[in-house]
Amino acid sequence: MMWKEIITGDFMEMNDCDKTSHAKSRENVKAGHLMPIMEEPNLVSENETQKMLIEDTYENNPNVELKIKDFNAYYGEKQVLKNLNFNIIKQQVTALIGPSGCGKSTLIKCINRMNDLVDTFRYTGGIRFRGNNIYDKQENVTELRKKIGMVFQKPNPFPMSIYDNIVFGPYVCGVPRSEWDTLVEEVLTATYLWDEVKDRLFDNAYTLSGGQQQRLCIARALSIKPEIILMDEPCSALDPIATAKIEDLILDLKKHYTVIIVTHSMAQARRVAKYVAFLYMGELVEVDESEKFFNDPLCDRSKDYICGRIG
Ligand SMILES: Nc1ncnc2c1ncn2[C@@H]1O[C@H](COP(=O)(O)OP(=O)(O)OP(=O)(O)O)[C@@H](O)[C@H]1O
Ligand SMILES: [Mg+2]
User: What pTM value is reported for the model?
Assistant: First the structure.
């Protein structure tokens, strides 16, 4: 919730739980002291970037690719994401950062509805992809996952040839066989793998190095022509050289795709991401341009994280 709402009392749209904590905050304000969580001017729209990253909607700004709105997520009784409100901007790289367990992977999984498979998972609020709530009942999950591809922490090629890894998705989606060769070359070129593997396309994917396997997984994600690519710590199992190649690739991908990357490396977030969202214990502490976030963060908690005092 926004600081200005506490001052103005403008909290008509909150749920009961929010209103209770809000009322407590208001009492504290009246009493002349603030609750600790309110000491930081959290998420105030101070400028145009903040407005775009928090308040804009797809309807008034088509660059708002995803709008995460009043989003809460639970595993059983445990709430792991708390009232998240921020936007992901089209054809840019957004880094999700924060200490272990703060909910980064959970949020990524919510964006392509992978958590639907978890019995204890439930959510409130919504995630809008170009204006449509991905959790709407009429939303077709298979179609959604075609538009929102995912790359995992550990490279996970299928136990089949390099070529088959790429064409597996297109085959399932009904892309004609006559288009496969062109597609394979296209996505392997896009992931800088073509020159390395063009003479061994029918070797098992497990014969590739870890870094090559991860680029193959990115190529596989591209093969079904997604709009958004989610990457959950894609370099954490890789050496610095393989990491540099993936980072170059991410910078290339943003020309055509919207990329969300989870990373524990602040240097990496700085290098590849235009925007950064910092989560702490399931809450969004701050979202901003990465240059601004790392040089002059709004919140003390962000400063502590950047300096290594927390996390
Ligand atoms: N399937 C699940 N069932 C129950 N709890 C879960 C499940 N998945 C995640 N959690 C819990 O949700 C919280 C957030 O986990 P999540 O994996 O999203 O964190 P994270 O920020 O990605 O952490 P890390 O940086 O270590 O990967 C943690 O407390 C975790 O134990
Ligand atoms: Mg994680």
Answer: 0.85
- Ligand 1, atom 28: closest residue by C-alpha: 101
What separation in Å is there between the alpha carbon of 100 and the centre of ligand 1?
A: 8
Domains by residue range for the chain, with CATH: 1-7+18-40 (no CATH), 90-109+141-306 (3.40.50.300)
The set of protein residues with a Cβ atom below 6 angstroms from ligand 1 is 75, 80, 98, 100-106, 118, 120
SS (H, E, C) 199-215: CCCCCEHHHCCHHHHHH
Q: What is the pLDDT of residue 14?
A: 34
pLDDT tier at 149, thresholds 50, 70, 90: very high
